[in-house]
Prior knowledge:
InterPro entries: Chitin_Synth_Reg, Sel1-like, TPR-like_helical_dom_sf. The chain contains 25 helices and two strands. By secondary structure, it is mostly helical. The chain folds into three domains: 3-48 and 389-526, Alpha Horseshoe (Serine Threonine Protein Phosphatase 5, Tetratricopeptide repeat), CATH 1.25.40.10; 62-191, no CATH class; 218-377, Tetratricopeptide repeat domain (Serine Threonine Protein Phosphatase 5, Tetratricopeptide repeat). The chain has a two-stranded antiparallel ribbon.
Amino acid sequence: MTPSMHRTRLxxxxxxxxxxxxxxxxxxxxxxxxxxxxxxxxxTAAAQxxxxxxxxxxxxxATQADTVIAAKSRVLSRKYASSCAFMSSPNAAEDDVAxxxxxxxxxxxxxxxxxxxYSDLAPDGDAxxxxxxxxxxxxxxxxxxxxxxxxxxxxxxxxxxxxxxDPNAPSVKCGAGDRRFAAGRNAILRKDKSLAQGFEALDRxxxxxxxxxxxxxxxxxxxxxxxxxxxKMHLYGMGTPRDTGEAVRWLRLVADGRFDPASDGLxxxxxxxxxxxxxxxxxxxxxxxxxxxxxxKPDPDQARKWYARAADFGFVPARDILGQAxxxxxxxxxxxxxxQAYLQDAARAGYVSAQYNLARLYYRGDGSxxxxxxxxLKQAGAWFDAAARAGHPGALFAAGRMFDLGxxxxxxxxxxxxxxxxAALKGNGDAEFALGTFFYEGEQVPKNxxxxxxxFDAAARQGQADAMFSLGAMAANGEGGPADQAMAWVWFSLAKAxxxxxxxxxxxxxxxxxxxxxxxxxxxxxKPAAKS
Length: 532
C-alpha cells in the first residue's frame, strides 16, 4: 500500500451522525485506474531507466508545391493538367521548406529551381536554343504544344531524323497527343473563373448560383475544391435538398481520384494537427458519415475503411482513431497489436492525443498471449510525460497521481501538487478534486477550507463524484462557507446518481435534519418544473 493510501483524506463529521469519512483520493484514483494512469517526469523516468520515446514532426502547412509553382510561372500543373499522370522524380525544390524560402526572396521562378515543369511556353520542349537538341521536353506551351522552332538553328531539331532521338518522345511515358490534351486543359485552367466565382457566391449565400458555378468548374477542370464544396452543399441542403447519397458521390470523386504522393500527401504539423488537404477532408467526411449514420445507416466497416484512407493520405489524427478502433473492435475484430501500432505511429509523429492514449494502453495492458500488449509502466510513464509536457490535462493529472501514489517512482506529494495545479488550471475535474483535498488537509500546503470548497465545487460541476460527495459534506457542516442542508442534500443526491458508494448512507443520515423549506429548495433544483 502506498504512503498516500495510508494518509487520512477528508474526514467530515455531520452532527449527530458521527463520522462520515469522505473517500480518500487514493481510493478514488485506484477505482479510476483504467482511465487515469500515471506519467513520470522526464528526469525521474530517465533516472529509473525508463524507455525513451522519440517524437518527430515534419514542418507542415498549407503550401502545395504544384499550386505555388503553377501560379507564379504559369506552368502546366501536374495536378490539374495531366492526362496520363505527368509526373517526375521527387525534387528538393518542391519541398515546402524550399518553397517558403524561395518565396521570401522572390525566387519561385528562379533558374536555379530545377523542378520539372510543364510550361505554357513550350509543351513539347522549346527548341529555340537547343542546337538540335530536344530541349527540355517537360516544358511546353498550350499555344505551341508541338514545340516552338522559330529560332531553332536546325529546323529538324524536333523533326523525325532517321536514327535521331524523337524530341516528342514521352519523357514520362506520355506521348505528344497527351501533351496536346494537357496543354488544352491548361489553357482552360488559366482563363477559367468559375471556381473563384462559385466560392464568392457561396460566401454571399447565393447557393443556387454557387451550385451551378461549382458544378461547371468541376466539369471543366476537375477541381477537388469544387467537388468538396458541392459535397457539403448536398450534405447540408445548401441550395439543394439534403442528399447524403449525392454528397457521398462527390466526396468519393475526390477521395478516389488520382493520388500523387509528391503533391497530395499531407505533411503533419503537431502545431496544426487538424489541418487537412481536400483529399484528406473528403476521406474523413466519408468516415464520419458512415460512423454516425448521417443520412444513411451506420456502417462501422466502411467508417474504418475511410479512416484508413485518410491515414494513408497522411492525416495523423486518423491513425489515433484507427488505433482506438482496433483496441475496441470497432468495424472489425479486436487486435491490440494493431491498435498499438497505429497509436505508436501517431504518437511518434507528435500527436498529443495519441501519446496520451498510448500511455493509457501501456499502463493497463491489453489481453494475453501472442497478440497482447503487456503492461509497461516505463513506457506508460514516458508517453504520459510526453503528453504532459505538451499540456494535455489528463496526462498532467496522471503525472501528479504517479508522484502522489508513488507508482513507479518514490512518492512525492509536493511534486504531485505541481502537476495537479497545472491540470486543474486546464479544467481537469480529477485534478481539481485532488488539489482540493490537499487544501482541506493542510499537510503539504497551508490549510484553506474556502479554497478546498471552491475546488470541490469546480470539480463537482464537471460530474466528479468524489467532489460532489465532499462538497455535500462541507455544505452540511458549514466548512469553507455557510451551512446549507438543502445544497448538501442536492450534492449527495447527485453523488449517488453518479455511483458514489457512500452517498446513500449520507442521504439517510441527513434526511431527518431537513426542514420543509430545505426539501422544497432541493426539489426545485433536482426536479425543476417543466416549462409551459
